[in-house]
Amino acid sequence: MLKWWIILYIAHRLASSLSHTPRTVVAPGIELRILPLGDSISFGWNSTDGTDGYRLELSQCLSSSSWLFVGTQRSGTLMADNYNEGHPGYTISRIGAVAGPGLAESPNIVLLHAGTNDLNNSPRPANESYANAPTRLGALIDEVLAQVPGTVVVVAQIINAANAGTEEKIQAFNQAVPGIAQQRADAGMKVAVVDMSSVGAGELIDGLYPTPTGYKHMGDLWLGALQRVTAMG
């Protein structure tokens, strides 16, 4: 059984340093059951390659014998293993409300990118203010770890947006993410952070969703986080 170390890892601009060939075995002898959890970005929305999103790049980088995606949703036309738990349009709280069936598939890695809809949509429900989005993210992480105590949650500082007002909110949200993760790591939870904020406005197809280049960038950043997490144990 893999010995997991609790780490806090922030990956800054790793895409340029990652090799795509040969495929990478990030945890020799261990099958990674990876749950991509989040909203439309985890689903791969607006991806011109067929809604494969960042999962396509990640799948092309990982050794075919060392991993599989899990989840109740399927999206993507370029890979057979297109399972995920991405829910287009969902806020953090709504993601938490529907995550149970995906978590029941016993992932040992959860890739969590959530918060875009909390910070972009208007008007806000009374219980989903912009300012409290970090608190909701922490609660979602707690829900994940309560249902699957042995899993590692890799939580993202989310990608940018072209709209100045939305981007300001995203920056404030992202500043809170490391503290959210560190608080839980200090309590013995298995949490890591990956910084997706280097996916900028020039890699967005409509100011909000990544272009194919943006999704590729995300896949490389996820790979870097997986390498750092699994190398520790």
From TrEMBL:
Residues 1-17 form the signal peptide. GO terms for molecular function: phosphatidylcholine lysophospholipase activity. InterPro entries: Ester_Hydrolysis_Enzymes (IPR051532), SGNH_hydro (IPR013830), SGNH_hydro_sf (IPR036514). SUPFAM superfamilies: SGNH hydrolase. This is Carbohydrate esterase family 3 protein. It comes from the Eukaryota. Keywords: Signal. Residues 37-216 form the SGNH hydrolase-type esterase domain. It comes from Lepidopterella palustris CBS 459.81.
